[in-house]
């Protein structure tokens, strides 16, 4: 806001000419005038803060106090501002004078009213109806000092209260009117736009008496009587589109204390445009009172404290925009006539935007209350005694902001927000009494944020989130007896993870996750132990699921549900691993059925490749394979073994006749699944040098007891030199003979080794030499594989030499593997091994951990800057406190030696905010050893908190070790794995899991 006078500039013209060059005088004048400018600026800032359109917080509370409108507890500024503008104190209902007073204060004009859309999207119709007197329009503007300029006159509909004009700033005002005579008690006053209309001649309102209002210069009549049902049914009808319409009607009342039954009183009165009924204490029944008044725009109904029924109250008022009601009436235990039910009260009010109902304590049920109120976008309801909210906001397509208070008694939330297409955030609700949540948020296509609901009594949640196509994540809900989730997540195409709920009591999973096309996994923790009823179409169409379907099928077979039709139809059909799972599931369950015995299912990256034409095979037959999935982009072929040998030795090794396994650039190859392999007992060099092989399914090998052509092992060299293979498959083998030597050596792109399951061995010559040698990019699995092989292997030289040396996680594994196996060997006692991201960093010159000794790793097989810190004795307290705080030098803890003798680790890594990894490993080792350190209060306080992986680990360390408070009671199976520090999405999801569990454990002593 600009000041009226710029004092510094204005005052210069008053300085005599001879003094205008006096620096001292000008400095003095400017100093004083600057203070005037500052004071005026501050003054106008205060005025601006008290402008109703801009005021917030305490300033808005002050404006509300002027008209006696107090802020409700927890009420937002937006909602509170609208109530101030409406001029209605929902507790004591101040009249129009109080309303005008606040507007006069805010605008600085003398004669004002309220009008649409400024400063909020609602207005209130004042009493009176005469034309405005414009003679006193010229007023001084409070903001600019200029006079108002008469603008274009925008005539309002008759009865709305005046004319709109614009001031010089474009700010609209409504000029006040001459007040009409006060409306007597116990009459309905009707204002007719047709000056010649006579209700006594028209014969309307037959059970009352009409009296012409002599003091009014409009055609106004008072009606008094005891109405019977349908008293004014279709009495006043006009077509909004009919240009020849002549008689619009406004009905008002200042108080009706005589007992009256207003059952369908104004049903079908399409000519009524505004109704303002105050003090309606005599009304005992308002059922369908304004039903089908399709041109009614504003409805005020106050003081009906004895009313028993508001069902269908303003149903099908298709142009109704604003409803103001102070109370619904007394709570009635009689349920036979919808006595305490807002059943279809405002249904089909397509243009309803604002609803203000002060006292809802008597409302027992909200059934279809706002059904198909398309324009309703903001709702605040306090529903203390409500038990049912079935389809309350069903079809409110523009609803965005919802506040529901005191929902703790609601038992039914069925279809409450069905078809609320604009709702992005679900409201906080107390669902502790909810029994049914059926379809609650069905078809909320923009819903993305849902709070964690406590639902210990809920049994049915079917269709609750069906067709919520934007919903990616759902937190944990606390269920107690949930039995059915039919169609709960049907067509939730953005859902990325199955929510961590308790599914253990659910018997009905019908269509539960159908067409959840963003799901990639059915997790192992997913509990279907009670699914004895139906799992029909459970994961139908979840085409991107890569893992878990076959595992879940095996669980369900044990439970034997009654209905299971197409449970896994097309589940994972867009992924190779998913297709592999479908080959383990019968067609009756929606799977692809078993492959032929002694067969492999191949996918060729070249969509036009035909192995029957382009290549030859030693002993097999090729058959084109179809999944039946319409959008399948894979080129799938089944190879079935036709030889007489007992093994597949050299069957697909790279040579001139098997070029389809060598051209990775043009035709990468995947082994997707296999049939029963009972007859195949040797796999030596099966894919030797098959450089086109990028993926291979897991193998279940019932018998690997035969060596062919004098090979040393049945699995020898099986994937040797497959330099584009990324994951070494899990091999479940029985009767292993000879070992796994050279099984995957020189697989230079290998990132993961799945440890084999070896159920039995033949002889005593199991050999693992060179098994994973020269696989430098392995990140995970080497240490676990060593643990499996260590108890059964006689020869293991160079098994892991140079395995994982390009990855920090791989190097960390090497410290768990003896040097005789190609590892780096165990770390010495009381030592910690660090890798520093700054290749030039020297901890000895950085003066950190000076109580111990730093040693650079000798014979370093990697390019990392690795140092070992060692300190003897029992006290490590504060040794590395605040040592690592440089974002350019993030240390990675690779390994920890035995620390049984260390008793004090208080503040050991306190404040080392850029530790990238390893704090959790150190905690697990120290806390799990025979004699844990006695003093450990701040060992890991803030350790790694500025790195994603470090923060993730900190969330899993108890607070009494300096970890994060949220995870003190977290169970191990709730810890998600974060493989890459840059995977923010996984980090956020993991933190959400912890927060959800924390909510469930909020009563625990942390």
Tell me what you see in this structure.
The chain is 14% helix and 14% strand. Helix 3 runs parallel beside helix 4 (77-86). The model is unreliable at 87-181 and 965-1006 (pLDDT under 50). Among the domains are: 7-49, no CATH class; 198-334 and 344-353; 597-825; 831-1000, no CATH class. It is of the alpha/beta class and 1006 residues long. A hairpin with a 7-residue loop joins strand 1 (154-155) and strand 2 (163-166). The strands form 10 sheets. The protein has an 8-stranded mixed beta sheet with strand order 5-6-4-7-9-11-12-13, with no helix packed on it. A 5-stranded mixed beta sheet has the order 19-20-18-21-22, covered by helices on one side. The two termini are 53 Å apart. It has 15 helices and 33 strands.
Summarize the topology.
Elements (H helix, E strand, L loop, with lengths): L6 H5 L11 H27 L7 H10 L10 H10 L9 H12 L46 E2 L7 E4 L5 E3 L13 E5 L6 H4 L5 E5 L6 E7 L23 E5 L6 E2 L10 E6 L5 E3 L12 E4 L20 E6 L26 E6 L18 E5 L18 E5 L48 E2 L22 E2 L69 H11 L16 H7 L16 E6 L6 H4 L5 E5 L11 E6 L27 E6 L18 E4 L2 E3 L25 E2 L2 E3 L2 E4 L12 E2 L3 E2 L2 E7 L14 H8 L18 H7 L16 E6 L6 H4 L6 E4 L8 E6 L20 E6 L22 H10 L19 H7 L29 H17 L6
Parallel strand pairs: 7-9, 8-10, 9-11, 11-12, 12-13, 14-15, 16-17, 21-22, 23-25, 24-27, 25-28, 26-29
Antiparallel strand pairs: 1-2, 2-3, 4-6, 4-7, 5-6, 18-20, 18-21, 19-20, 30-32, 30-33, 31-32
Helix pairs in contact: 3-4
Q: How large is the share of residues in beta strands?
A: 5-15%
- Give, in spatial order, the strands making up the sheet with the most strands: 5-6-4-7-9-11-12-13
Please count the beta strands (DSSP E, at least 2 residues each). Answer: 33
> Using only CA atoms, what is the Rg?
40 Å
| Class by alpha and beta content | alpha/beta
Could you name the ranges where pLDDT drops below 50 across 5 or more consecutive residues? 87-181, 965-1006
Could you tell me how far the N terminus lies from the C terminus, measured between alpha carbons in angstroms? 53 Å
The share of residues in helices is 10-25%
């Amino acid at each position: 806001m600009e000041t009226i006078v710029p004092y510094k500039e204005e005052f210069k013209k008053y300085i005599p000419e001879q003094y205008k060059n006096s620096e001292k005088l000008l400095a003095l004048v400017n100093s004083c005038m600057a203070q005037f400018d500052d004071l005026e600026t501050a003054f106008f800032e205060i005025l601006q803060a008290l402008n109703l359109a801009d005021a917030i917080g305490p300033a808005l509370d002050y404006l509300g106090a002027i008209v006696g409108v107090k802020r409700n507890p927890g009420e937002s500024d937006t909602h509170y501002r609208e109530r101030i503008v409406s001029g209605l104190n929902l507790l004591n209902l101040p009249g129009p004078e109080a309303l005008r007073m606040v507007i006069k204060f805010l605008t600085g004009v003398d004669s004002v009213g309220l009008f649409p859309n400024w400063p909020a999207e609602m207005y209130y119709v004042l009493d009176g109806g005469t034309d405005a007197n414009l003679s006193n329009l010229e007023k001084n503007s409070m903001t600019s000092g200029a006079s108002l300029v008469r603008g274009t006159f925008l005539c309002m509909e008759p009865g709305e209260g005046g004319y709109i004009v614009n001031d010089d700033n474009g700010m609209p005002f409504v000029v006040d009117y001459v007040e009409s005579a006060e409306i007597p008690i116990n009459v309905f006053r009707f204002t007719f736009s047709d000056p010649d209309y006579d209700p006594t001649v028209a014969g309307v309102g037959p059970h009352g008496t009409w009296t012409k209002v002599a003091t009014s210069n409009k055609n106004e009549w008072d009606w008094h009587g005891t109405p019977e049902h349908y008293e004014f049914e279709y009495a006043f009808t006009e077509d909004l589109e009919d240009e020849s319409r002549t008689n619009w009607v406004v009905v008002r009342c200042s108080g009706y204390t005589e007992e009256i039954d207003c059952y369908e009183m104004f049903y079908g009165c399409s000519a009524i445009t505004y109704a303002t009924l105050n003090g309606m204490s005599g009304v005992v029944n308002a059922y369908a009172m304004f039903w089908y008044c399709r041109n009614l725009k504003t409805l005020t109904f106050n003081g009906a404290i004895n009313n028993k029924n508001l069902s269908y109250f303003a149903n099908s008022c298709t142009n109704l925009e604003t409803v103001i009601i102070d109370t619904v009436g007394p709570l009635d235990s009689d349920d036979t006539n919808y006595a305490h039910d807002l059943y279809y009260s405002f249904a089909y009010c397509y243009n309803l935007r604002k609803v203000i109902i002060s006292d809802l304590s008597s409302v027992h049920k909200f059934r279809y209350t706002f059904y198909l109120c398309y324009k309703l976008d903001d709702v605040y309801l306090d529903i203390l005694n409500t038990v049912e909210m079935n389809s309350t906001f069903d079809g409110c397509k523009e609803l965005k902001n919802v506040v529901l208070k005191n929902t703790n008694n609601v038992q039914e939330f069925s279809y409450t927000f069905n078809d609320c297409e604009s709702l992005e955030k679900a409201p906080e609700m107390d669902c502790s009494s909810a029994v049914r949540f059926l379809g609650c948020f069905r078809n909320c296509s923009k819903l993305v944020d849902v709070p964690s609901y406590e639902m210990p009594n809920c049994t049915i949640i079917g269709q609750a989130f069906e067709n919520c196509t934007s919903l990616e994540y759902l937190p944990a809900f606390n269920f107690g007896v949930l039995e059915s989730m039919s169609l709960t997540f049907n067509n939730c195409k953005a859902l990325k993870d199955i929510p961590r709920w308790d599914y253990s009591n659910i018997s009905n999973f019908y269509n539960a996750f159908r067409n959840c096309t963003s799901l990639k996994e059915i997790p192992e923790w997913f509990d279907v132990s009670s699914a004895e009823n139906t799992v029909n179409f459970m994961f139908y169409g979840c085409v991107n699921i890569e893992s878990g379907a076959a595992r879940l099928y095996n669980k369900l077979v044990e439970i034997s549900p009654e209905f299971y039709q197409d449970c896994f139809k097309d589940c994972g059909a867009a992924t190779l691993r998913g297709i592999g799972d479908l080959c383990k599931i019968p067609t009756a369950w929606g799977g692809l059925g078993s492959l032929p015995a002694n067969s492999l299912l191949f996918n060729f990256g070249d969509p036009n490749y035909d192995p029957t034409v382009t290549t030859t095979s030693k002993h097999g037959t090729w058959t084109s394979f179809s999944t039946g999935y319409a959008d399948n982009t894979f080129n799938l072929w089944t190879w079935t073994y036709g030889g007489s040998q007992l093994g597949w030795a050299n069957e697909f090794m790279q040579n001139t006749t098997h070029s389809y396994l060598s051209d990775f650039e043009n035709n990468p190859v995947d082994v997707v699944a296999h049939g029963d392999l009972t007859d195949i007992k040797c796999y030596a060099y099966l894919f030797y040098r098959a450089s086109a092989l990028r993926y291979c399914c897991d193998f279940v090998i019932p018998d690997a007891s035969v060596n062919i052509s004098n090979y040393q092992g049945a699995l020898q060299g099986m994937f040797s030199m497959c330099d584009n293979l990324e994951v070494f498959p899990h091999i479940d083998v029985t009767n292993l003979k000879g070992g796994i030597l050279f099984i995957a050596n020189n697989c230079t792109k290998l990132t993961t080794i799945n440890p084999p399951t070896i159920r039995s061995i033949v002889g005593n010559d199991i050999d693992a030499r060179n098994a994973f040698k020269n696989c430098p990019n392995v990140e995970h699995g080497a240490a676990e594989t060593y643990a499996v092989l260590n108890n059964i292997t006689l020869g293991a030289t160079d098994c892991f030499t140079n395995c994982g040396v390009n990855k920090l996680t791989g190097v960390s594994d090497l410290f768990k593997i003896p040097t005789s196996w190609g590892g780096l060997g165990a770390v010495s006692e009381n030592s910690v091994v660090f890798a520093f991201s700054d290749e030039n960093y020297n901890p000895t010159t950085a003066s950190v951990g000076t109580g111990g000794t730093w040693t650079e790793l000798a014979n370093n097989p990697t390019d990392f800057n690795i140092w070992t810190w060692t300190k003897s004795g029992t006290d490590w307290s504060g040794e590395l406190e605040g040592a690592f705080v440089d974002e350019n030098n993030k240390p990675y803890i690779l390994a920890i030696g035995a620390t049984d003798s260390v008793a004090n680790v208080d503040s050991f890594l306190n404040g080392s905010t850029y530790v990238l990894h390893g704090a959790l490993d150190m905690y697990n080792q120290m806390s799990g050893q025979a004699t844990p350190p006695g003093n450990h209060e701040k060992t890991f306080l803030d350790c790694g908190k500025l790195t994603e992986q470090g923060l993730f680990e900190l969330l899993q360390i108890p607070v009494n070790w300096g970890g994060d408070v949220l995870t003190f009671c977290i169970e191990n199976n709730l810890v998600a794995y974060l493989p890459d520090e840059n995977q923010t999405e996984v980090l956020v999801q993991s933190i959400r899991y912890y927060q959800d569990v924390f909510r469930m454990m909020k009563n625990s002593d942390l």
